[in-house]
Protein 1
Amino acid sequence: MSPETLLLYVGTMLLVVLIPGPTVLCIVTQAGRFGFRRSLAGIAGIQAGHLVLFGFVAAGLATAFATHAGVLDVIRLAGAGYLIYLGLRLVFAPANAKATSPAPEARIVVDRNLFLQAFATQISNPKAYLFISAYVPQFIRPDFPLMSQVMILLLVTVALEATVLIGYAYLTARSVTSFRASPAGPWLERALGGAFVFFGVRMLLERK
């Protein structure tokens, strides 16, 4: 892989990860409810999802997988249902729920749940599979070892998206700290829940 190709990948991928979507919404919600440090577990879950996605590329299954309508429909329905479920939990959460400061003994459980929640959000998004299958192979040259190129692109993707998500999480945690104490605080969570439902319904209605 030439330096020019890598720079092109970095530039285009940076634009992609800056656009808000289900993964950004997931991390923003976690940072708003549990604080910046706890949201790092969710960011790790998103990056773990990339291991699965890039694994399909490395195994040569990405194109066949993306063109299999039945498999994509299952992922689409599961992903839509999961986003709607997360959204409804936020919409109907008790207004007086305090989720920002879990007890020390519960932090491991909270981190694990946030990790799994973000991981599920990432791998249940059919657009992620379509994007990886159509975009990443364009930067892989047949005259270079496949695994080394996939690993380089994976590391670049993880570094870029993790940095962007950390930025989103930090800004959200800073701004929500004072806002949650106001009467409008519960409405913020309901708005985030509504956004999850919106993404879920849109995913449910979309076709390849």
Protein 2
Amino acid sequence: MRRYKFQPIRKDKDTEVQFLSRTKYPVIEEQDTDVKIIAKYGDNLTKLAFDYYGDVDLYWIIARRNKFTNTIYPVIGQELYIPTDISEAISELNKLNRI
């Protein structure tokens, strides 16, 4: 996945200034299959996404599941839940962003 895949370039009607639109992310609900881990020194959401999904661009799934808003660094000792079935989340992302 490319980082800006869901952010088409828009143009302001009045000023003609171009900008990237915002990506809409789905809510990630708790599932019985989620893996529970305890954050340790050096963990961040992109590293965890690579470890569990093989793709750092999927960090947003872990962030949304754990209600992170503006950081990718969990607190050491924090419980994190890693969704294992991500197909529905990716499908919903595509629907929300009309891909």
